[in-house]
Amino acid sequence: MTLAAALCCAMISTLFTACGSDEEKKTDDNTPVACGMSYMISIGRDLFDHANFTVEYYDANGKLQSEKMANELWEKEITTKLPGIVGVQVKMQMKDGVSTADIDLFSIDYLFRYEAYILTADGKKTTCNLNAARPAIQIKGSDVPNWVEEHSVLKAASFCYTFDANGKYSNTGF
């Protein structure tokens, strides 16, 4: 009986070891297959009430698209196959028929956040660059039209990355 029990234990041990070795043979596929960007911008109420905003971005096919901001918050996430390009640019201009001349202190503030990343064949996401900021200033109302004209492209909130077939990227600017 003792010999039978020992043989049974040996067979079970071999079975578990064999099953475990199949699991260990699986490897992660870290081959980069896609790139992407998630982006969010929120415009402060004073600025949004007095200026129009347009967001230009590269879609999943690498084509430049344009959307007018309908409200203070704009969000988008784009993923595209490698090689690829991801990027966002925010433009503004004063709204027709509005005046800021009678405003003592005008708040210019916005918040943006973006993440540029690589996706691997096994679905893992690797962040390449992450940035967020909340610029905020107050200026005289009479200076707002000049400020908007000088900053017609919000360069602090505009980003573009080009990825090669291996997932290497460079900040190419928009």
At a glance:
With 174 residues, the protein is α+β, with helices and mostly antiparallel strands.
Protein described:
It contains three helices and ten strands. By secondary structure, it is of the alpha+beta class. The longest helix has 24 residues, at 2-25. It has helices at residues 2-25, 45-50, 144-150, and strands at residues 32-43, 51-58, 64-68, 73-81, 84-94, 105-120, 125-133, 136-140, 159-163, 169-171. The strands form two sheets. Strands 1, 4, 6, 7 and 8 form a five-stranded antiparallel beta sheet that branches. A five-stranded antiparallel beta sheet has the order 3-2-5-9-10.
User: Beta-strand level of the residues, as a percent range?
Assistant: over 45%
Distance between the termini: 79 Å
Count of distinct strands = 10
> Rg, please?
27 Å
Number of helices: 3
Strand-pairing-aware structural class: alpha+beta
Q: The biggest beta sheet, please?
A: 5 strands, antiparallel
The string of secondary-structure elements, in order, is HEHEEEEEEEHEE
